[in-house]
Amino acid sequence: MRYDAVLFDLDGTLTASAPGIFGSVQHALMQLGYPPLEDSKLPGFVGPPLYESFERIAGLDASQAEQAVAAYREHYEDSGLFRATVYEGIPNLLRQLRAQGVYVALASAKPIALAHRVLEHFGLTRFFDRVIGADPGRRESDKQSLLQDALPARYERAAMVGDRRYDMEAAKALGLDAVGAAWGYGTEAELREAGADAVAHTVGEAARYLCGEDAPAPRGFFISIEGLDGCGKTTQMNAVAAHAAARGYAVVTTREPGGAPVSEEIRRLVLDPEKSMCAQTEALLYAAARAEHVRQVIRPALEKGKIVLCDRFVDSSIAYQGGGRELGMEQVMAINAMAVGGTMPDLTLLFLVDARTAFLRRSNATALDRLERAGEAFFQRVYDAYARLAQSGGERFRCIDACRDIDAVTADACAHMDRLLAQR
Ligand code: TYD
């Protein structure tokens, strides 16, 4: 282990927070009757103390700057705070450090309550042993005293990761290693001049530096999305993907049948309305497509620590071929054992709409594939099989009533995923 304690800055290091910060700066200036700043001047506000930036960049005097900071904070706490995204790779870097038993702390110049709200909002709280921010009432805390407070009582070797010169200077003043986060708002030159011991251009590079080159990547998360044709699962999958990406996860979205070149060819065959085939052939083709997809796409992505969101997986075969085509759920599970080879979803989101509603939604579609042309009785059997799977399949299944408005359905789906992510 290289370090036994690692301290992080927040804005520009863990989160890309510029959009919210810029909006609140312009809002504050407007409220006080000053003209808005040119876009090119705004990046200077991320990182350094706000009072100083309002003086130095916007040319305000001390008392004007104080008013501007008050107006800024009001707007920022209201809406700016959450107009941010977590940099890709951050949750996995934090997981890796925790797995190595490293003490992890946050040292932010943000008021402490806001720092907590941001960590909570993005699901990051659980990774931190200690969270240090500016105390209410204090004008602005200098970085060095924040770092001092964030350090554990005892440590051998500690590093500070930050994206601005203030972070590097404070780290060096305390005898810590300074790791520059060049993915944030400072430049590599700024970080080096301020004494950075290392500069990482991506979060992955920082992870290799902090955790060691051959530290194993934490395993990713496999989430399958299931439901009747017409349940809206593709729309929901995209919304869930965006939610995960904003939390700093690398996301792969894929689908079955398909997802890999050979599997896409099988998809064309199996869904072709011109072809007729027996139910057994159909079931085996889906399984064959899956075997390839698991090995070419799903496993490699999970090994790299990504979230795999899969539009249909083995439960589709169990419900459609096992239930719909009446091959029997057990039998279809059995022929799929070799295809999945133990790679099963950590979470299955099952979007439930009744067979009739799904049928009505589908009948608005123009070109129906071979499966979608099956009758209502077929889809009722598929629905029943899904319901039985969810009942007996235990923990992995989360049923979501997909007859409600899209946003309510998305909120449920994202909450289920957040709970899964919080487990590791
Ligand atoms: P899907 O890609 O969800 O359809 P679309 O993109 O047209 O909305 O699925 C294609 C069809 O394949 C769908 O009717 C369900 C069926 N299917 C099975 O019958 N068994 C399976 O194992 C899979 C993965 C899909």
- The CATH homologous superfamily of the largest domain is named P-loop containing nucleotide triphosphate hydrolases
Mean pLDDT reading = 94
Main sheet attributes: strand count, strand direction, barrel closure = 6 strands, parallel
Strand content: 5-15%
CATH class of the largest domain: Alpha Beta
**Continuous helix count:** 17
What CATH calls the topology of the largest domain is Rossmann fold
Oligomer: single chain
Radius of gyration: 26 Å
Shape: elongated
Q: Enumerate the strands of the largest sheet in spatial order, edge to edge or round the barrel.
A: 5-4-1-6-7-8
Order of helices and strands: EEHHHEHEHEHEHEHEHEHEHHEHHEHHEH
Q: How many β-strand runs?
A: 13
Question: Helix- and strand-based class?
Answer: alpha/beta
Q: How many distinct folded domains?
A: 3
| Uncertain stretches | none
Ligand set: thymidine-5'-diphosphate
Rounded to the nearest angstrom, the distance between the terminal CA atoms is: 21 Å
